[in-house]
Predict the structure.
Amino acid sequence: MNLKLYKHKYYDGIYLARNWNYCGGGADTEFYYATRDVMVALKDANRKDFESWMHNFLDENMKTRLKAKITDVKEIEIDGYTGKITKELVFPVTDFMLVKLQEAET
């Protein structure tokens, strides 16, 4: 059994997933998004056309210009005030590395 997934190179627990609603568009189209749900990332990365857009929309260094976004939500308390704050993180698709999971043969 072989499985693969794309994991962020620097941030633990952030994975690349595919937005299957898009099958055409430009460099600003959200073909991919970042997620903390490893099961969604595994399911998406192992579908047939997951990597189909990764090598499109190249810049002068021959790297894709596609981005993956995630909204981070944190609950904070400062001087008795509590609330949620949000921040949108945007990562280049090239910040994700392929991880292959293989079942050991006995």
Q: What stands out?
A: Helices lie at 38-45. The longest helix spans residues 38-45. The mean pLDDT is 92.
